[in-house]
Structures are given as C-alpha cells and as structure tokens.
C-alpha cells in the first residue's frame, strides 16, 4: 500500500495541468499594478517553464510542478498585498503618448 502511494506522488503531472499552472501564473501576474513586478513575474514564470521543459524524470517533474504551485500561492498572496500598498502612479512604461 505504501509503495502505491509513493508511486502516485512521484507520478508526473499531465501536460494539461502544467499548462494550466502556467496560465494561472500569468493570470496572477496580470493582477499586479506595478509594471516592473508584473513583467518580472511573467518573465520568471516563462523562464522556469522553459528551463524545466526538458525534464523527463517523473520525480523531477513532480517536484518542479509542486514548486510551481507553491510559487503561484506566493504570487497570489503578494498580489493582494501589492494591491493594498502599491503606489497609484503609473510607470513610464504604462503611460501612453498623446
């Protein structure tokens, strides 16, 4: 019984779940008002997925997936904090030219 549970935990997540995690990270990044923070989270999320794209070991995949889920939870909580305390002034990158 214990080996079946260990095998289930070591199983790699399906591709659809990994893509769903990436979309959730990008969606959460878009909730940040600050341009620099928003773009950093987008870039870091995409870079991490590209970096882990070549993983083939099921335990490494499961570990990377759980790390991604943990990062998503951190990003969600930080989005709330940033929305409460972020300055309301737009970045120069967000100001449209007239």
Question: pLDDT under 50 segments (min length 5)?
Answer: 1-9
Roughly how many Å apart are the termini? 67 Å
Number of helices: 4
- Gross morphology is elongated
Strands, count: 0
Strand content: under 5%
Class from secondary-structure proportions = mainly alpha
Which whole number gives the mean pLDDT? 84
How is the main sheet built? none
* Order of secondary-structure elements: HHHH
Radius of gyration: 17 Å
**Relative helix content:** over 70%
Chart the SSEs and their pairings:
Blueprint: H1 2-10, H2 15-29, H3 35-51, H4 58-85
Helix pairs in contact: 2-3, 2-4
Q: How would you describe this structure to a colleague?
A:
There is one protein chain. The chain is mostly helical and 98 residues long. The chain has helices spanning 2-10, 15-29, 35-51, 58-85. The chain is elongated and about 45 Å long. Residues 1-9 have low confidence and may be disordered. Residues 17-74 form the Complex 1 LYR protein domain. InterPro entries: Complex1_LYR_dom, Complex1_LYR_LYRM4. Pfam families: Complex1_LYR.
Defining key terms:
mainly alpha, elongated, disordered N terminus, 98 residues
